[in-house]
UniProtKB/TrEMBL annotation:
InterPro entries: Teicoplanin_resist-assoc, VanZ-like
Keyword S-adenosyl-L-methionine attributed: no
Keywords: Membrane, Transmembrane, Transmembrane helix
Name of this chain's protein: VanZ-like domain-containing protein
Domain VanZ-like, first and last residues per copy: 42-160
């Protein structure tokens, strides 16, 4: 029997698969561009599993001052406690910045900064809603929004920097535009 806690995870995967079906059907993609599309799908599916699959045991961050909204724990005190999870979230969304560059290499820096907010806001608001509706045992944390933003911006900046060196010939075939 399917547990309702897995509903958010299943819906996220379904949205990814339906969305990527259109991207895979685009004709005239080079093999390198297909690699970009397929690896970004794989990456996003792993991220969906990491952030939306229910956790088995709740170990709320005892050192964080958590508030509760209808039994959903959340932290709205930014950057009070920096821990290994802080760096892990930056590393989690760094590849998303790489894919953003490969998909949209000509974004201005304000567009990159704005796009960097999207993953954290989507993940945390979805975790909040799913925990409120089906109790997925997740903590909604403002630090995650900040670190997800930092990861995307850093990933984009690294590939942008590499694309302005002699490595451009290695990066260009994987760009979709």
């Amino acid at each position: 029997m399917l547990q309702t806690q897995w509903l958010t995870f299943g819906v996220a995967w379904l949205i990814l698969l339906v969305g990527y079906y259109r991207l895979l059907a685009v004709p005239n993609r080079t093999p390198a561009q297909r690699v970009t599309v397929l690896t970004s799908l794989g990456y996003l599916m792993v991220v969906a599993w990491l952030v939306f699959a229910p956790v088995g045991l709740v170990l709320p961050d005892s050192y964080k001052d958590l508030s509760y909204f209808y039994m959903v724990p959340y932290n709205l005190h930014p950057l009070v406690h920096v821990d290994p999870e802080f760096l892990a979230n930056i590393l989690l969304t760094g590849p998303l910045g790489v894919y953003c560059y490969l998909w949209r290499p000509h974004w201005s820096w304000w567009q990159v900064a704005l796009a960097g907010l999207v993953p954290g806001l989507v993940i945390e608001s979805t975790q909040f809603a799913s925990d409120w509706l089906v109790h997925t045992l997740r903590v909604v944390d403002i630090d995650d929004v900040i670190t997800n933003w930092a990861g995307l911006v850093l990933g984009y900046a690294v590939v942008w920097g590499l694309d302005h060196t002699s490595l451009r010939t290695l990066i260009k075939p994987f760009r979709l535009r």
